[in-house]
Amino acid sequence: MELFRLLSAHPEIKEVFLYSSSKAGQQLTDEVQHLYQIVNQPLRSLEQLPIDKLDVLFCSAPSGVSTELLPPLANKNLKIIDLAGDFRIKNQDTYRKWYRKEPPPTALINQAVYGLTEWNSEDVKKSDLIANPGCYPTAALLGLLPLLKTGMIKPASLVIDAKSGISGAGVSPTKGTHFSQNNDSLSIYKMHQHQHIPEIEQTIQRITGIDTKITFNTHLIPMTRGIMATMYAELDEDFDSQSVKEIYEESYSNKHFVRVYDERTNLFTKQVYGSNYCDLTFAVDDRTNRITVVSVIDNLLKGAAGQAVQNMNVMFNLDEAEGLQHSPMFP
Ligand SMILES: NC(=O)C1=CN([C@@H]2O[C@H](COP(=O)(O)OP(=O)(O)OC[C@H]3O[C@@H](n4cnc5c(N)ncnc54)[C@H](OP(=O)(O)O)[C@@H]3O)[C@@H](O)[C@H]2O)C=CC1
Ligand SMILES: CC(=O)N[C@@H](CCC(=O)OP(=O)(O)O)C(=O)O
After folding, report:
1. Is the dihedral angle over the CA atoms 238, 242, 243, 245 positive or is it negative?
2. Fewest CB atoms within 10 Å of the CB: 20, 70, 155, 213?
3. What broad class describes the main subcellular location of this protein (predicted)?
4. Alpha-carbon gap, residue 226 to 299, rounded angstroms
């Protein structure tokens, strides 16, 4: 629904069609009461996809669905952006191990471009099939890549501690996302087993050439949206606060959606709420020679729908911020 909201207000989009696997033919009223004035269509069935009339298709279903759905639609003069994990992992055995599902065909995995446009916009531009990054990897990688690429931190020392709002768990309520269980409580889940671990390691490898194994844990926070990734690593002795700040500024000065704050700024997930920004800060600890990096995003925007629209903009040679210019809502 966030994707639909963004696309409906996008100045370069003529028409958006909505498809559903379970509610074809129904009017979207209950789920999208908040979009009452713009949802003026019944949900369509997937069999009705007019491939030759569409420019771009977003697939926004849980992992495993696009492995079945997308292969027959690929390479048909239609650009595809998949929001799920299916096309993100290049090694099929790695995908099987972490997702416990069968991967898509090799040719399509090889064709898919990982859409972290801040780091590979040239590939995104040429691509017809984008694997939109996961929410946690987006937050973690945008904070870490500048430091890893320049050798500022020791990869083996890296620990990523991430926290997410409950909308990260999708639309269907489960025991784990029940209000009474989460309200007034903080929980840890999928310890050392999160499916985003191989995605982060693979992207570090592809962008910096570093083969490393990360320690990554995730927590559920009783809030609707937002991710904070707090990352700890040993700083190489040749670097200090000043050089870290310079590297961040160099990496992101011309990147619209990454905002680098001064060292030790207190960041809030709410300062990016409803926006496509990723906000970063850091603190160097001279006593321990460790650095802490903090990254915040809105999981539904920069972590999913916003980043998907940003990728679409780059693929169609539009300004990458088209349709995503709005500031965060605060408080
Ligand atoms: N929530 C988040 O913070 C993030 C989400 N993503 C990705 O964004 C996309 C949307 O996320 P989110 O809305 O949370 O996802 P959900 O898990 O809530 O699923 C979205 C919709 O997928 C459809 N769907 C299609 N096939 C199936 C199936 N076999 N089983 C269940 N549902 C199915 C359902 O709609 P219908 O029945 O109408 O077809 C469902 O409402 C996903 O690809 C997800 O991986 C990425 C990063 C962050
Ligand atoms: C809070 C919560 O449950 N979050 C989800 C990640 C959401 C996401 O990024 O999903 P995909 O990688 O599937 O696209 C999780 O931890 O599995």
Report:
1. positive
2. 213
3. cytoplasm
4. 5
- In this structure, which residue's CA is closest to atom 10 in ligand 2? 134
Same domain, residue pair 155 and 103: no
Cα Rg, the chain, nearest whole Å: 20
- State in Å: Cα 288 to ligand 2 middle: 33
Within 8 A by CB and 6+ apart from 252, the residues are: 118, 146, 258, 259, 260, 280
What is the span of the domain harbouring residue 273?
136-300
Complex ipTM tops 0.90: yes
Q: Is the CB of 21 under 6 A from ligand 1?
A: yes
133 lines ligand 1 (CB under 6 A): no
Q: Answer yes or no: do 153 and 296 share one domain.
A: yes
Q: For a substitution probing ligand 1, which of 26, 46, 48, 60 has the most ligand atoms within 8 Å of its CB? A: 60
* Ligand 1 contacts CB of residue 173 (under 6 A): no
Expressed in angstroms and rounded, the spacing between residue 63 Cα and the centre of ligand 1 is 8
Let me know if residue 15 belongs to a domain: yes
Quick check: CB of 138 below 6 Å from ligand 1?
Answer: no
